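EI: anyone free to look at a 435-residue chain?
SC: sure, send it
EI:
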Amino acid sequence: MQLLSSRKLRTSPLYPRLEQHGAFFGEIMGYERALWFGDRIDHDYDNHIYQDRQPTKTFHKPDWFGAVKSEYWACRERVALIDMSAFTKFELKSAGTEVVNFLQYMCSNDVDKPIETVIHTGMQNVNGGYENDCSVVRLENNCYLMVAPATQQTRAYAWISKHLPADGSVQLSDVTSMYTVVNVIGPKSRELLQELTETSMATADFPAMTCKTINLGHASGIRAMRLTHSGEDGWTLYIPSEYAVHVYDTLMSHGRDYGIRNAGLYALKSLRVEKFFAFWGIDIDAQTTPFECQRDFRVKFEKGEFIGKGALLKQKDEGIKKKFVQLLLDTRDHNRDRDPWPWGGEPIYRNNRYVGTVCSSAYGFTKKALICLGFVQDFNENSENPRIITNDWVLRNAKYEVDIAGTRYSAKAGIFPPVIEAATVARYMPQVRQA
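SC: here you go
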């Protein structure tokens, strides 16, 4: 559900451009974000009437399906732009190495990496659960940029502030509004960006999970990170907000040669659900540990002490009681055009026993099926505590079903990222422009 009042409270500098391109917006933390793009039917923006702003008005196949499909394939075959300015952005710095020591204690991954490195990490509580799921970028020896979901802006700031050294040696600043964030995603993203910058965007010079400061068009000081939060190739551009419109217009103009289009968060969700990516606040939370959602490879016990280390070591030895799974609905059983869709909260059954609920769901346009993400547990009828489970319990001799509106539909379970067939990259040739 979307609020019908108190809208347009927080918008990115690109809001008018996206509105002109037919964006349908959704609100989170007071921030308007483009969900998908289509033909708008109302233009009564000034008096804040949002009759058409409920993005989904059905429990079945939504009317935005075709638009999101086009955006999805632009991300996979060509190039697309997604405004992700609502992401939380913090800067942490110190005079010496204090900020490194502080983040090593706060984060479960090793963040003492070379300058320009991007690290995905959790910030765990004493029980090992996720207080924050973020990306940390080392900008200087004593300065980091932290990026987290929009819903974490207040929560993460409070959590970090609570643990800051009492001597004031580490400084925390919320720089969310300083940067407009544009996700340039797709196989043509490198060619497009290379037209507009002197920095080499080749993989050998600009590998994945690194960050460089680049100029683009006539704008300078853009922090470009080679990651897209979707599994597709591309860059996330952190643009000083005064340059945002110029950079967006430049990308859209030159991008015509590559079949560029805008994409919204529904397309991004489809990509990440299909690739089995968990998202904080929807799939994982303060009660979820890295071992339960297949992110234990991001936990570095050898680096030293950090919050939650003891709890995670104990869980590593004893085992887990819930497991994050991907459920692919059987298209022979569930018809996307006729049957109701899963939207989150649906019961999951294993061999006719309730084992959990759906967290995220989306249509996978490559897999050509609806996909659910959720946690499964082996509930003990004689105790409130679920049993320890293994991968064998999850997968072997297990028949899964998802209950959607009272009807159970068969589903295939997986615990590892699926193989996604390569997309056919569209061929576009840059046009010669007149000086």
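EI: The radius of gyration is 22 Å.
SC: 👍
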